[in-house]
Amino acid sequence: MCGIAGYYGTNKIQEDNIRCTLESMDKRGPDHNSFIKKTFGSNNLILMQSRLSILDPSESANQPIVKNNNIMVYNGEIYNYLELRDLFFRKNETFDSSSDTEILFKIVEKFRETNQRYKYIDGMWSFAYFDGVRKELTLSRDYFGEKPLYILKASHGIYFGSTPVYIEKLSSSKPCINYKKLSKFLVYDFRHYDSDNDSFAAGIESVPAGTELRVTSSGKITSDCFFSPIEESQQISYGYQETKERLRDLTIKLIKRRFRSDFPISLFLSGGIDSSLIAYIASQNSKQLNCISIDTRDSRYDEKKEIDRIVSEYSLYHCYLKPNYTADKTFEILQDISHDNYAPIPCQNYLLFDLMVKEAKVKDTKVVMTGLGGDELFAGYLSHWKFYFQSMRDEYSWKSEYNCFLENVAPWIRSDSLKDFGFDYEKVNPEQYQEEVGDHQSVFTMPRIDGSYQKTPGSSYLKRKLNIDILYSTLPPHLRASDMVSMYHSIESRAPFLSKELFEFSRSLPDKYLMGSGYNKSILRNTFAKDIPNEVVFQREKKGFNVEFSQATTKGLEDSFQDIYVCEYLTELIDMKRIKAIMNKETISNAESKLLFRIASAYCFLKSGNRNIY
Fold first, then answer.
1. Which residues, at least 6 apart from 300, have a Cβ–Cβ distance to it below 8 Å?
2. Buried/exposed 194-208: b ≥16 CB within 10 Å, e otherwise
3. Cα–Cα nearest to 252, from 442, 501, 13
4. Is residue 231's pLDDT more than 50?
């Protein structure tokens, strides 16, 4: 895990710019940093890297890596690097290191004519590779966009970096805030935080997940999408029992790979099936994880009973943390992380995430694991029920499944909109999911912003919803936020469920395997029912990893909002009288808490780094 940045074009980059950029990359790579600068005719190339060493901490694994006139800088982890080495290279071939970096470099070299390399790679990455023969720069980002990669296209060349801040430093530019994107985030919450490729810095854009860019010596840029979640896998042809056996073998194999590290690993343990499954597989493979959980002090999100059961079952090293930030400290965290990433933090959960990452660092951890991705692969959100029923509305079992939901699931759901779908057995609106309405939109004085997502293919309404969650709605902002917060503390965040192979398997399953009989993630639960305690694996209530903003911040929140009430930019967008009324309520709802957090996060982003608002 590292930070990368660079430039390719005719502009001459000053040494001060390089120095300032490297300094800004320190948190993402505190163990080593370096750069290489080359001139090819009228073109100048700069490749920069700061390293957080996870595999092979020796100097031989430092970057940039240079061989045969080719150069690479890379951020991420290739989990199957040992398998790739055995598959493609002779046993007597020598390597300069035992890192995944060198294997990736050789794989890119081997498949330089084509993007077929991605068929074999299991991992997360963003990399820049310069072909010294063709004088061509390749920029690549992993399947799901776990690792960030931004670009700025200029008339004289292209800048790139792990954050827009690196591009800002290297190019000596002062980009304005992308106020349209910021407004959309305020109105529609985190679900529209990464619904397009624009960044919060105007003019700087994100390389799409699963995409490779090639930049020629003449400055021509071509884009090639090597992976897209909307390409449906062929549906399985074998029975349910064999499907479970295959899912079990595949899941264990892939999660075991993600334990590879030369440093301790922490697991953020909730009471749900995803993190519990990671804990189970670790316990069966003699992998000791430092497990960290949150004691929310809120019965709506309290999973202590389930967590304690998992800790006891697998004899885990474990600790609880309680949210204890003052408002001043909360605003300081929001501002500092926003400054380093040129983006606000998308949702209040990441105040808890920040607390847990700090504890992981105290335990000398360099890697943390989360259950991110499990809900998007196996239909784990409560909102997925609506689209499951839409998908099966013509089937004979529709009514019995719906009644099972009303009897066994709906009583546990706090939000009326997630249990009262507003349709009867005869009539549903198949495109209803295209319009995601933001909470408390009436507090905004700006003209209405379009909140619909791009129409997305899928073999069923449920699969279409899952594809939207993968591409736009839930997964991208969570990945972005986990990377922002963890890398601010020089910690790598891994999401073991995010594998191209596991994704393709999950998309090959019929909807009735994913949901049914009152359970979401149905086949995942049934596959590991003998390995995970029943009170966890068959828990119908989805409490969620959450805390109310007012509870995460123990005191001083009302005082901190006084500056927000007079922030010129925000007062143009928001009816502050309505916000004051919410603040004065004795009890606020989860939706109101999320709204307050978004406003605070946007304010801290505006305040950080003297940003150009207009």
1. 414, 543, 546, 590
2. bbbebbbbbebbbbb
3. 501
4. yes
Q: What is the dihedral of CA 24, 27, 28, 30, to 10 degrees?
A: 110
Sequence-distant (6+) residues with CB within 8 A of 138 are: 108, 127, 128, 129, 130, 131, 212, 213, 214, 215
- Give 137-171 pLDDT, tens digit per residue: 999 999 999 999 999 999 999 999 999 999 999 99
Pair of tokens at residue 583:
């603040």
- Measured distance CA(557)–CA(539) in Å, rounded: 35
CA dihedral 196, 202, 204, 210 (to 10 degrees): 0
Give the pLDDT confidence of 499-548 residue by residue, as tens digits: 999 999 999 999 999 998 899 999 999 999 999 999 999 988 777 676 76
CA atoms of 111 and 128, how far apart (whole Å): 15
Q: Do strands 43-51 and 2-9 pair parallel, antiparallel, or not at all (unpaired)? A: antiparallel
Structure tokens at 460: 């069923």
- Above pLDDT 70, what percent of the chain? 92
Q: Decide the pairing of beta strands 290-294 and 265-268.
A: parallel
Looking at per-residue pLDDT, the higher value among 217 and 456 belongs to 217
| Residues 340/27, Cβ–Cβ less than 8 Å | yes
Closest CA to 170 of 33, 37, 20, 27: 20
